[in-house]
Amino acid sequence: MAEVIEALVDGGKATAGPPLGPALGPLGVNIMEVIKAINEKTKAFQGMKVPVKVTVDPETKSFDVSVGTPPTSALIKKELGIEKGSGDARNQKVGNLTMEQVKKIAAMKETSLLGKGVKERAKEIIGTCRSMGITVEGKTPKDILKDIDEGKYDEVLR
């Protein structure tokens, strides 16, 4: 029966110390190999806490690392270097993302977003921007969504 260990680690900076080391030790896997795999998969989320799930087969000593992603709002805040979103999203704007930044965040969240393509995932990110008081390309999220639907950003969102 496979053992599952879930932990919250710093992106790209997991160590053999707690919480991972003590949990992995009794399972007989090479702890440093697991840590290396975790750090490789979480390096895009440096400076953030990332949920990680390690599934270990105690008989074969094989393991599988699956990485969750931080919330979309946390990725947007990190990209903009801001502490928090706007308390009044309709009237007070706290930042501006470029379409490239939206695409980058959409790529990070690829496995946990519902959209099938880059365009649809970008629209989900822009929806979060709307509630946080963040503009995209200097325009309101509503206007940008309209532009995307009209194909104005097809070159960027491939």
What can you tell me about this protein's structure?
It is built from 6 helices and 5 strands, in the order E-H-H-E-E-H-E-H-H-E-H. It has 2 domains: 3-67, 2-Layer Sandwich (Ribosomal protein L11, N-terminal domain); 72-149, Orthogonal Bundle (Arc Repressor Mutant, subunit A), CATH 1.10.10.250. The strands form 2 sheets. Strands 1-2-3 form a 3-stranded antiparallel sheet. A two-stranded parallel ribbon has the order 4-5. The chain is α+β, with helices and mostly antiparallel strands. Helix 4 (99-108) packs across helix 5 and helix 5 runs antiparallel to helix 6. The radius of gyration is 19 Å and the shape is elongated. The model has no long low-confidence stretch (mean pLDDT 91).
Which range does the strand content fall in?
15-25%
CATH architecture level-2 label of the largest domain: Orthogonal Bundle
- Share of residues in helices: 25-40%
- Report the oligomer: single chain
Class per helix and strand makeup: alpha+beta
Shape: elongated
Quickly name the level 1 CATH class of the largest domain: Mainly Alpha
Short description:
This protein folds into two domains: 3-67, Ribosomal protein L11, N-terminal domain (2-Layer Sandwich), CATH 3.30.1550.10; 72-149, Ribosomal protein L11/L12, C-terminal domain (Arc Repressor Mutant, subunit A, Orthogonal Bundle), CATH 1.10.10.250. It is 38% helix and 18% strand. It has helices spanning 20-24, 31-42, 72-80, 99-108, 118-132, 141-149, and strands at 3-10, 49-57, 62-67, 95-97, 134-136.
Descriptive labels:
single chain, 158 residues, alpha+beta, Ribosomal protein L11, N-terminal domain, Arc Repressor Mutant, subunit A, 2 domains, 3-stranded antiparallel sheet, two-stranded parallel ribbon, 6 helices
